[in-house]
Amino acid sequence: MRNGKGAIDATVGVRSHYAMPCGIPAIAVVCAYAALIGVAPAQRPSARPAPKPPATKPAARTAIRTEPRVPFAPGERLSYDISWSSSLTAGTAVMSVQDKKASYGSIAYYIVAEGQPTALLSKLYRLYYKADTLLDAFDLVPQRASIYSEEGKRHRFKITTFGAAAKSPTFEVRTDTVVRTPMRLSRDAQDPLAAIYALRARPLKAGDRMTMPITDSGRQYTIDVSVVGPEAVTCGLGTVTAWKLVPIARGAGPAAREIALWISDDSRRLPVKIRAEVAAGRFDFTLREAQSAPVAFRR
């Protein structure tokens, strides 16, 4: 399942995330991805063909697509400490922008997130989670996303292919067998990992309210997000001012009782903290270190 570098090429699909087998260690990393479900909607241009012009007029020129400015670039690497109920260090997580390349007839950022428990907890139960997404550089919506998980002897690989990369969206689960299911997705649907990066590119102000579709594990639900703040947040970078985003899922959303995401109010728009409240307690993902590629970005 894992190669020597612990990765799978993005064009084939990478690995990561979820489940809750063995108490605290599993829940800690599970919440990392559940908490990534706060994102602004990104609009995909209409796919309707342009009307054919009269024979006496020249054909219309193809519209030139423009990439929006974003506060991240290949080379960015964000490292997090995962704490349980503000005391026990349960694990670590890393989110990184690994590439920007041609993908499915467009250009996409290749983004990866990995999470695992501490070495001590790993001795009690083996866990490894890895998620990836191809985020379209023009629309800031995903083309394809995948999740790989190792929980003890159980390995699972889940792949979502969005409308931009296929005639129709599909959800695939690979274990000892392969099950592929067609899906109905909104054109602006986000996967949890792509969502947080799309949100970083969006202007925020106190009182903003957003509604957006999220797809996770083969189903789609709607998230309502409120923007609060700014607030002071202490992390590995010191004390930073950040916007607090509070997403609430309609209907059958994630299992977390409460989720919050803090995005720094500066040019880097860093996700400095993620919080997820579940039955086992509160889990905080606090930014420990940020290695950022130089980016020209104006809020």
Question: How does this model look, in words?
Answer:
- The structure is a single chain.
- The protein has 299 residues and is mainly β.
- It has one domain (24-39, 69-291): YmcC-like fold (Beta Barrel), CATH 2.40.360.
- Helix content is 9%, strand content 46%.
- It has a 14-stranded antiparallel sheet.
- The N and C termini lie far apart (41 Å).
- 42% of the residues are buried.
Short structural description:
The protein has 299 residues and is mostly beta strands. The protein has 3 helices and 14 strands.
Index terms:
disordered N terminus; 299 residues; 14-stranded antiparallel beta sheet; 14 strands; mainly beta
Total discrete domains? 1
Strand tally, please? 14
Please, what is the oligomeric state? Answer: single chain
Strand content: over 45%
Secondary-structure element series: HEEEHEEEEEHEEEEEE
With strands numbered from the N-terminus, the spatial order across the biggest sheet is 8-7-6-5-4-3-2-1-14-13-12-11-10-9
Topology (elements, then pairings):
Blueprint: H1 24-34, E1 77-84, E2 88-103, E3 106-117, H2 119-124, E4 127-136, E5 142-151, E6 154-161, E7 170-174, E8 178-182, H3 192-200, E9 209-216, E10 219-235, E11 238-249, E12 258-264, E13 271-278, E14 281-291
Antiparallel strand pairs: 1-2, 1-14, 2-3, 3-4, 4-5, 5-6, 6-7, 7-8, 9-10, 10-11, 11-12, 12-13, 13-14
